[in-house]
Amino acid sequence: MHKRKSPLKVVPGEVRPKLAGVETVDAIVIGAGHNGLVAANLLADAGWTVQVIEATAHPGGAVRSGEITAPGYLSDLFSAFHPLGYASPVLRALDLDVRWTHAPDVFSHLLPDGRAATVSRDVHRTAESMERFAPGDGQRWTDAYAEWRGISDRLLDVLFTPFPPIRSGLGLLGRLGTADALRMARRLLLPVSQLGRELFDGEGARLALAGCALHTDLTPQEAGGGVFGWLLAMLGQQVGWPVPAGGAGELTAALVRRFTGEIVYGTPVSRVLVARGRAVGVRTADGRDRRARRAVIADVPAPTLFLNLVGERWLPPRMAEDLAHFRWDGATVKVDWAVRGQVPWANPEVAGSGTVHLGADLNGLTRYAGALSSDELPEDPFLLLGQMTTADPSRSPAGTESMWAYTHLPHRQSWPADEIAAHVERMESVVERSAPGFRSLVEARHVYSPADLERENPSLVGGALGAGTSAVFQQLFLRPIPGLGRADTPIDRLYQGGASSHPGPGVHGVPGANAARAALARDRGLTGGLYRAAVAGAHRAIYR
Fold first, then answer.
1. Where does the Amine oxidase domain start and stop, copy by copy (predicted)?
2. How confident is the model over 140-161, as a mean pLDDT?
3. I need a surface site. Which of 21, 155, 537, 540 has the fewest CB within 10 A?
4. Distances from the Cα of 513 to the Cαs of 70, 281, 413, 418, 460, in angstroms?
């Protein structure tokens, strides 16, 4: 276990006594979300003095917990299940003191007709569930999982290292060989509906993939959706979808405990200070300038960073043009419930699943996504539902359930309260149809509208959870806009460290780690000079 001195408590606007009075540090990190905290830890490990400046009164961004429904019922306010965090080599290398726990089953997709396709960490149990939908699909799932196991370590290395992943990419190519690599490249671009048809005969296994893909903003027919469905489903089979015991906030707390720099809360950053094309610090909303000798890392969405905090004056003209085409992912409405009893599922198979996808079959998923694409509210929303006490018994009293569900909405500037209330009614109706008597067991509920989500975490702009669409035109070297796909920006010593940058959303810490690595590479003697020159030259070529 990594032993670090616990940081002193910080109140809003104040600094730790050990750095009180110091106006300049090596690095300033904007935002104490998990990516910002990962970057801060890595820079502090390298011996840098680091100050994290957080706009809200709490660390963690979208990785937080609290009792928001009823006393004794602990809810994860935003993100909840963390297969990417559990598998992330970045978080593993930090050796965080977090205990993970699992539900008996990983997830179930519950069809409107009452049938369920269930993924368990026991591959034989999963295969039995898929076999009930089509003879042979049990073996097909087992074969698909064996294929995944053969390349998962190399593939995750490709996803979780800075772009371009030359060394890890060559390793994956060597593992696959040329013929299979070409076919894998095709698979990564398939819509999830097409991938499901190619791999399986029955609706159960196809829905397992499709429901996972709809954790993003992609439709079942959209290119690139297959890789997200395949990745989440196979990770669920391999490592589960675990949760931190005691709440998602325990992951944040572990990052804070490990960090030896300073954190300032309740202090929004209003401007990145730039001099001669170089980031030199930040100005906070209280009018105070804070200086950084070596780096400014921003764990905020790309439009917020470049258009609001930097300003177009310091951006290459073509970069400002590209940002005008940045696309957000959809909005979200989330409901948390305190349930005084077990959820009365009509199909008992889903009772042991930490996550339940419900409200739609394959055609229903397409209709749901089509409504969102048409800027309409789906009449029959598809729900992603979490049974948190099933995954972690500490979340509520014995025999009860702390539960949440969310669904996507079109991305809009604002939502009238009556529209949100009507959609929450639709969401509860979906649960009630699948679990008759559910409403009578609800002790209390809490609703987060898109505006509520953004108020609690300013990085969730308009209720968007992904800091930008997961569509293929905004991935890799196109994320957040056409460029290098790296944390470096055209402003020297300013780095992107949030989910708008490669490899995107998910609680894995990679954008923060990539930003810290870029800052360290730039500052490394002679090789740092070569690195700076190469990055600057590439940016001139891209944005001139």
1. 36-424
2. 93
3. 21
4. 37, 20, 32, 42, 21
Residue 173: CB atoms within 10 Å: 15
Q: Can you tell me the distance from the alpha carbon of 261 to that of 23, in angstroms, rounded to the nearest whole number?
A: 14
d(CA 396, CA 430) in angstroms, rounded, equals 23
Residue partners of 22: CB distance under 8 A and separation at least 6: 15, 49
Q: What are the phi and psi torsion angles at 426 (to 5°)? A: -65, -40
Tens digit of pLDDT for each residue in 42-77? 999 999 999 999 999 999 999 999 999 999 999 999
Residue 33: pLDDT above 90?
Answer: yes
| Closest-CA residue to 26 (of 526, 519, 524, 532) | 519
Tell me the whole-structure pTM to 2 decimals. Answer: 0.92
* CA–CA dist 289, 270 (Å, integer): 10
- The token duo for 24 is 């300049």
| Radius of gyration from C-alpha coordinates of the chain | 23
- For 417-461, write each residue's pLDDT tens digit: 999 999 999 999 999 999 999 999 999 999 999 999 999 999 999
User: What is the sign, positive or negative, of the torsion defined by CA atoms of 240, 246, 252, 255?
Assistant: negative
